[in-house]
Amino acid sequence: MDHLACFTPKDLTAKAAAPDLAAYRWRLLAQGDSWFSTATAKLDAHANLLQEMYFKQPTCAVNCAGSGEALSHMVDLESAPDFVRLLSAEDAPVWDGVLLSVGGNDLISAAQTPAHTPDGADVPLHLRLLRRQTEWGPPSAGVARYFSEPGWATYSDYLRTNVRHLLTLRDQGPSAGKPVFMHCYAVPMPRPAGAEANANSELGASGPWLYPALKACALPSADWAAVSRLMVFHLALLLKSMAADKEQFPGLHVFDSTAVPLAPATAGTSGSSGDWHNEIHLNHSGCLKIARAWSESIERVLSGEVLVVPGGKRRS
């Protein structure tokens, strides 16, 4: 097994010691949120998925996530010119696949949207994911009574539109039709565990992220873990449904990270706990567990391996 060799766009233009991409069996282009970030503080503290990926064949990735917070939100492609150029320009390399880590920060932002604007005006349900206490459904609905289905419909449309846009960019360049690999997210424990202070922190704050949002909506603390699970599983089902729609999302492959067993963080803790460095970021052990499983899934697609699934059906 070979560790994934990671380069930056700047490495490709280095006058001396530029990497020879032809030396690798598989060449990937990567972009994403903080789960792909190469910021030194992040790598020291909680790693990223790319660091922990291994392949049977020599594989490299040019990671455009960088040391800042490019593509913290999916539509922020203007702050990721290297990614757009390397993906869609006529003279861009031909990539064997594209790795994307997107959608999670948008989910957190949607959950953080308050029920009222600073001047006291109501924020309509279709623009937020959580209901305030007077809007809760019946107890028989379980934790779904706290969840805004109209808000989820808005988020779903947003995510679908932007993933389709990314696939369009792929098909404008030399890598047209190549597979695009996305991962789902793991289920965080809402808790008072923020990140290190950083002027460029994604989502405009250093956290915690879900913890204050759930408190602001007066959700019972006993339900916080289940609410987090509900939102992350909604996202996983959405991503998997997109991958299944080959007409609208050709070449999209989604890895279900929720199926990877992780050690959950302990409720109420403020530091690293279980497989989590802080409230929404995995530590090295958590990244390792997801990255290894995702690597195997990616390599099966790249190698064209055919799998036999229950019922005798075959799929690649």
Write a structural description.
A 6-stranded parallel beta sheet has the order 2-5-3-6-7-8, sandwiched between helices. A two-stranded antiparallel ribbon has the order 1-4. It has a two-stranded antiparallel sheet with strand order 9-10. Helices cover 31% and strands 11% of the residues. It has a single domain (2-103, 152-315), classed as SGNH hydrolase (Rossmann fold). It has helices spanning 9-12, 40-46, 81-88, 104-112, 149-172, 210-216, 224-244, 284-302; strands spanning 2-3, 5-7, 26-32, 54-55, 59-63, 97-101, 180-183, 252-255, 307-308, 314-315. β9 (307-308) and β10 (314-315) form a beta hairpin. It is globular. It comes from Roseateles oligotrophus. This is SGNH hydrolase-type esterase domain-containing protein.
Highlighted features:
8 helices; two-stranded antiparallel ribbon; alpha/beta; SGNH_hydro_sf; Rossmann fold; six-stranded parallel beta sheet; globular; 316 residues; disordered C terminus
